[in-house]
Amino acid sequence: MKNIVWLASYPKSGNTWLRLFLIKLMGEHENPLDINQLGTIPVIGNRIIFDQITGYQSSDLLQHEIDLLRPSVYKNYSSKATETLFIKAHDAYTYLDDGNPIFPIEATKGAVYLIRNPLDIAPSFAHHSAVDVDEIIHNMNDVNTSFSNSTGNLEHQLRQHVLSWDDHVQSWMTAKDIDIHFVRFEDMVDKPLQTFRSVVQFAGLQNSDEEIIQALEACSFGKLKILEQNAGFCEKSTLAPSSSFFRKGKVGSWTETLSARQAAQILNEHVDVMTQFGYLDESGQLTSIPSTVISNHSALLQAIRKERAKTHYHYRLYGLVLSLPFMFDELSASHEPACVQVSLQKIECKDVNWRDETIGYRAKPGLCIIKIPGVASYLIRDGQEIIIEVEESNTDMKAVKLFLLNSVFSILLIQRGQTPFWGSTVVYNERAFALLGRSSVGKSLLAAGLKQKGFLVLSENLCVLSGEQSMEVLPGYPFLMLWRKGLNLLNETHSSLSCVRSGLQKFRYPLGEDFCASPVPLAGIYLLTPHNKETYQFENLTGFDKSLRLMNFTFNEPIAKAAGMQECQHKAVHMAATRLPVRAYSYMMADGSLQESLDYLAQSIMNSADQLL
Length: 613
Hints:
Rossmann fold; 3 domains; 26 strands; about 35% helix
């Protein structure tokens, strides 16, 4: 029996408002409305319903196993009902490996799809989730976005593939064999009777205008807000316990929250769908703005037009100014002319006599191509240009940026005659101390722990000196990249942090005021050598052993050799070994020993800095 009407939407688009209206309209509640009784219109990701119908616990299943069972669960749920069923869904209209949609056609009567201006969604969703607006904008632009997808703990709901905002909308627009009624949130606000009546008629409900008006009055936004204040709301996010679920419900309130840059980022990413639904005109200009907003925020609208006209964005990294074809707001913005040009285009590079070739890169003096399977290929030329060829249109841009920051930029620095060392750098008493180490030794974790003890952080993952004769360390990016386990050891939460790429439980940890944005003289180097003994030992290195061991922490010696820059590397290592104290730090690498490891390291750095005063 086809009796399910899906109430589908991207989050914060009016779905809960519509659910409460329908519950009131169908006579489920006497006056006053009880906003905490929503069980008659459940959420599609309801784990309890899934467990009851299957007879076993979803907590024991893998995510893809749950996905394969979901259509059958909804068909079974439909078969038990004799009347129209309304079910809320934030899922995009996606298909399983067997080619069937996650929304079973056999049980579907139709769908009401609610759409809202993404400019208004962003601040509302950020408020609901207690995260930064930039994080929400990133997720709205990310085709890989999904909810309740953690494998490290049990979420209240089943995983829901949300995709980016425009992909979510288009997934429902292109859904096959299903009747869909599209409703704009703005029309729900401006033309409530006409708009809600259209939903009632589409669903096949037999209600008069008088009944619709009564239900609308009972569910007015002002009344819902008062009901929440008096009784709380069961679906409010636990991430923001002190905030309100029913926040503003206004059209155009984004002008009070979003910057011109943030608005432009949303507009540029979703221009086609926004145009199709009347939020932009054919020339790409905003249309769905109340006249009061236009008069009060003309300067903002003008700034947005300027931002949208930009094709490249400038950021500072390791003393260089990059011109990027995409926003990378986690980096430090710059208004200076760029000396490194980055572009997104097809790489054309034929008949090159490469000096060195491996499965991952091809290199010669002044030219290198590095290929990351499933992500992108990068051409780095003369220390001044990077061309990025993304493999697929839906490639995770977080991954593209991640490899750009580390491996790719290291090669560019080598081409410029600089020597990047593998390591993080902290600052104490205006002196920099490098913590050098290969992957998995905990250099970022130690830097984060020292930050908690009052140190500043100058760079993460790469320690770059300003020149052949200089012992100043250049500032890197203003965040650390920490694994979830490391955050737990530091008693930090990951819930409000952005992962460095989809599929990795590794997160960007903003440094804020603890980031040192200017070059700092390097005063000492620590070579990190974790072990499994309960000992903490510093060894002062001398002579040839000092240079030899320091060389092990330079970035990819074979690439430097192929690039013709091995001599520069050797000079940088010799200079550092000659002019700086280098210590090997052997420490216990175990969960319960982190604070002790940090205490020994912090004390050594402070003693060294004090001796220089």
